C-alpha cells in the first residue's frame, strides 16, 4: 500500500514541479500526516518513531540545502513526506542519489549550453526542477534497498 501511495505522490509532485517549479502544500502535508498515521496505526509507538524520524531526516537535511538556496521549500516538504512514508534509511539514500543525479544533470545542462563553469557574470544561477533528479534518485534507492 505504501508503494502505491508513493508512486501516486511522486507522479503528482513530478508533474507539478516540471510544469510550475512548485510542489504544493496540499500534496506534501497530507502525505506526511498519512505516513505518520499509517505507521502509527500499523506498528504503534515504534511505527510513530519510524515515521517521525524519517520526517526529521528528510526535512532536516533538505532544510540546510534550502537555506543555501540549493532547493525550494517544496523539495524540503517533499523529503519530509518521503521520510514519513519510507523512514530514515530510505530517505537519506534517496537524497544521496538525488544529489548525485542533480550534479550529473547540472553538468549536462552546462555542457549543452556551452557555458563555462566559472562565468564572468554571476547574475543568473543554473536552475532546473529538482524532481528531475529526485525521481531517479528514489527509484535507485528503491532498487538497491530490495
Helix and strand arrangement:
Elements: H1 2-20, H2 25-43, H3 45-67, H4 73-113, H5 131-144
Helix pairs in contact: 1-2, 2-3, 2-4, 3-4, 4-5
Descriptive report:
The protein is mostly helical and 146 residues long. The protein has one domain. Helices cover 79% and strands 0% of the residues. It is built from 5 helices and no strands. Helix 1 packs antiparallel against helix 2. The two termini are 16 Å apart.
Which features would summarize this protein structure in a list?
single chain; mainly alpha; elongated
- Report on the biggest sheet: none
Number of DSSP E strands: 0
Provide the low-confidence segments as ranges.
none
The Rg value, from CA coordinates, equals 16 Å
Order of helices and strands: HHHHH
Global geometry: elongated
**What class, by secondary structure content?**
mainly alpha
* Residue-averaged pLDDT: 91
Work out the helicity level: over 70%
Distance between the termini: 16 Å
- Please give the count of helices: 5
Strand content: under 5%
Number of domains: 1
Amino acid at each position: 500500500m505504501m508503494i502505491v501511495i508513493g508512486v501516486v505522490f511522486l507522479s503528482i509532485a513530478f508533474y507539478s514541479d516540471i510544469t510550475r517549479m512548485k510542489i504544493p502544500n496540499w500534496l506534501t502535508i497530507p502525505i506526511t500526516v498519512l505516513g505518520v498515521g499509517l505507521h502509527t496505526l500499523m506498528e504503534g509507538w515504534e511505527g510513530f518513531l519510524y515515521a517521525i524520524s524519517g520526517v526529521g531526516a528528510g526535512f532536516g537535511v533538505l532544510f540546510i540545502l534550502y537555506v543555501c538556496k540549493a532547493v525550494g521549500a517544496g523539495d524540503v516538504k517533499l523529503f519530509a513526506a518521503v521520510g514519513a512514508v519510507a523512514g530514515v534509511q530510505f530517505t537519506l539514500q534517496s537524497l544521496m542519489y538525488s544529489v548525485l543525479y542533480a550534479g550529473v544533470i547540472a553538468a549536462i545542462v552546462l555542457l549543452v549550453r556551452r557555458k563555462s563553469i566559472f562565468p564572468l557574470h554571476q547574475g543568473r544561477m543554473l536552475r532546473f526542477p529538482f524532481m528531475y533528479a529526485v525521481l531517479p534518485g528514489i527509484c535507485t534507492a528503491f532498487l538497491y534497498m530490495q
